Every structure is written in C-alpha cells, then in structure tokens.
Amino acid sequence: MAVAGVVSTGVVRVLIADDQALFRSGLARLLDADPRVAVVGEASDGLEAVTMCADRKPDVVLMDLKMPSVDGVEATRRILSTSPDVKVLILSSFDADSHVLSALRAGARGYVLKDSTAEGIVCSILSVHLGERVMAGAVANRVLDMLEGSATPKEFYDGLTSREMEILRMIATGAPNKQIAFRLKISEKTVRNHVSNMYEKLNIFDRSQAVLYAVRKGLVEV
Fold first, then answer.
1. How many CB atoms lie within 10 A of CB 127?
2. Backbone phi and psi for residue 67, each to the nearest 5 degrees, phi listed first
3. Could you say which of 4, 41, 154, 216 is the most buried, measured as most Cβ atoms within 10 Å of its Cβ?
4. Whole-number mean pLDDT of the chain?
5. Which of 211, 92, 204, 104 is nearest to 147 (CA)?
C-alpha cells in the first residue's frame, strides 16, 4: 500500500466510477478536501465512466467493479484501449476478489479497499499517477505472483481444487449437501469428502467459517 508522504507534481485529476450514489458522492467530498487531487467527474456505471473519461480527461480513474450496463473490468479495458496514459485504480470491498485479478489483467494499476482512509486513497492515487502499482491487503504478493504467472489460482485459493471452490460457492449460498450433490450429479458421500478436504486445507471447522472465507476471497457476492 502506498504510504503517506508520496509527492506528486501538480493536481491529479480523478474520475470516480461507482454505482452506489452515497458512497460515490461521499468519496468525492473527501477527495476534494485534499489539495493534491481534484475530482473531475462521477460516473454511475462503466459505460458512463468510458464516456466521461474521454470527455473529462482524468489522470486517474477510481473504478468500482460490479456495476450495471458495463462492469469495471470491461470499462477498464475500453478506457485503456483509447487512453493508455490514464491510470485505473480499482475500488474493491474484498481483500482479493477474482474480478480484481481480471481488472488488473485488463490494465488496472492496482486496487484499494473501499474502507481505506481518505489519506490512504489519496496516497494510492498519487502513487499510480507516478507509475507505481498499488496493492491493498495481506494477499497483495500472491496477487502479483498470479499476474506475473509465478502462482496459480489453486495457490491463490490455498490449494482448493476447482471442484472444491464450486462446492464452497454453493455452501456460501446456503445449499445443503444433498442439494449440492443433486446439482453436481455426484453422491452425497463425495460431497462430504470434498467438504472435509476443503476444511482441512483451509484449517476451518464449520460452514460459517467456510462462508466467511468465500466472502473474503470474493467467491460470492454480499
């Protein structure tokens, strides 16, 4: 994460793209209170972000991921295809959302958590404006490893197989073993075996902990 004391020359022009009006306007007020940045626009979805970016010419776009019309990943891709000098910084609610990885591969320069302090977000903005990558959260190194190809999704999800992640998503939505078995066309015993293996890999002991893990990793929406 960027640290306080990052210095940038001039005022950095920022566009905020987020479909939650209250969060978007609140963040804009916080950023406008800092003389190092200036909010030049607020977009309510990805399509509006693409249009406003072409019109307002921001230096940095703060991009939410899960928006209507065009999501943050596709908006990032479109913006950078026409304005490669713009720096996109993802706004995420999770330490490591699988969508964040897609956005980083599309060209975003990093991500900042939505519950960061105003100073932390400003420092992140200044850092990406200067060409640095910004990664928030304890899993930042593993995210970078995945981007560089030195780590796999299996490593990122603590050794879980694709089948175990599939079952974990179903558990997180409240599906019992019997329903999971029916939907995957496998036996309940096989489901129980997968769950047992999953618990051992994650060092957890019940479904509530499994749900928390799924939410923290961005495997399910909240």
1. 23
2. -125, 155
3. 41
4. 84
5. 104
Q: Which residue has the higher pLDDT, 123 or 218?
A: 123
Which domains, and CATH codes, for the chain?
A: 12-148 (3.40.50.2300), 157-216 (1.10.10.10)
List strand residue ranges (DSSP E) for 114-215, in order.
Answer: 134-135
Q: Which of 131, 132, 119 is nearest to 37 (CA)?
A: 119
Residues 6+ apart with CB under 8 A from 35: 11
Which pair of tokens denotes residue 147?
A: 């981007």
- Residue type at 185 in one-letter notation: K
**Can you give the pTM of this predicted structure?**
0.65
Tokens representing residue 135 in the block? 């990664």
Check: CB of residue 59 under 8 Å from CB of residue 12: yes
- Among the residue ranges 23-37, 59-73, 90-104, 172-186, the one predicted with the least confidence is 90-104
